[in-house]
Structure to design on (267 residues):
């Protein structure tokens, strides 16, 4: 009887120790979520932070810039002193801009894995699946400039699938921006671009147009201020499925910063 009681006590102590040293708990206590880069989905891992509060944190960050103190969180809607004290142990604060980061690790994707400095040639229909792969794994930003973004209602229309990927990324808390051509002579092109703009704006995505006095013929996608897709591919089904086109995927944060800075001048 005595030995049985001792075994039960030892068993309970062992269970307690297992719970006490769970990896996720240990990592949380050291601050596993960077408040300046976390997505809406990642923020919802915090105690007392549901989707509404997570979206409010990301919206505040986008409107006011990076957090410079965890105490700034009380300025976010629906987050008070008690909520802040509850989540503080699980937070990290990195005030470095994502544009200034210097990635050193290889990143793994389903289609093509890259390391800093890599340049990958994407010919013809190799571009589309690679772009989709990188859009799906975007963590904090997607910046795009396109001459033509044309969708149809046909099943399997590739540009329409890209619209859905951008909307999904935005719902996860990724900051998405698109700059498109506003032609002074081609109303059919304007109609296609405006159609996409309406769909994206309904989902809180920033869409901008250049001046009709100039032509923006660039085709650029920059993801997480690190991965740049640049070349001849417009976002039309023909370009993504049938045409002979060539673009590059470049893993270089300095180039990404220059390209996003260039986009800033287009609208």
């Amino acid at each position: 009887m005595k030995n049985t009681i001792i075994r039960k006590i030892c068993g309970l102590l062992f269970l307690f120790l297992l719970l006490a040293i769970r990896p996720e708990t240990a990592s949380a206590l050291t601050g596993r979520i960077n408040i300046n880069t976390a997505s809406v989905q990642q923020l919802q891992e915090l105690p007392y932070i549901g989707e509404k509060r997570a979206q409010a944190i990301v919206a505040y960050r986008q409107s006011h810039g990076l957090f410079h103190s965890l105490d700034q969180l009380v300025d976010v809607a629906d987050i008070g002193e008690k909520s802040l004290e509850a989540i503080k142990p699980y937070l990290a604060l990195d005030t470095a801009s994502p544009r200034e980061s210097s990635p050193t690790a290889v990143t793994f994707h389903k289609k093509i894995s890259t390391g800093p400095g890599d340049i990958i040639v994407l010919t013809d229909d190799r571009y589309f699946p690679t772009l989709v792969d990188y859009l799906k794994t975007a963590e904090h930003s997607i910046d795009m400039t396109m001459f033509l973004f044309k969708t149809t209602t046909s099943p399997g229309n590739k540009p329409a699938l890209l619209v859905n990927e951008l909307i999904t990324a935005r719902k996860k808390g990724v900051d998405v921006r698109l700059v498109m051509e506003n032609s002074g002579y081609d109303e059919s092109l304007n109609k296609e671009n405006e159609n996409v703009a309406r769909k994206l704006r309904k989902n809180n995505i920033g869409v901008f147009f250049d001046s009709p006095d100039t032509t923006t013929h660039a085709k650029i996608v920059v993801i997480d201020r690190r991965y740049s897709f640049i070349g001849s591919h417009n976002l039309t089904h023909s370009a993504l499925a049938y045409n002979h086109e060539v673009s590059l995927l470049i893993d270089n944060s300095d180039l990404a910063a220059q390209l996003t800075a260039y986009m800033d001048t287009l609208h």
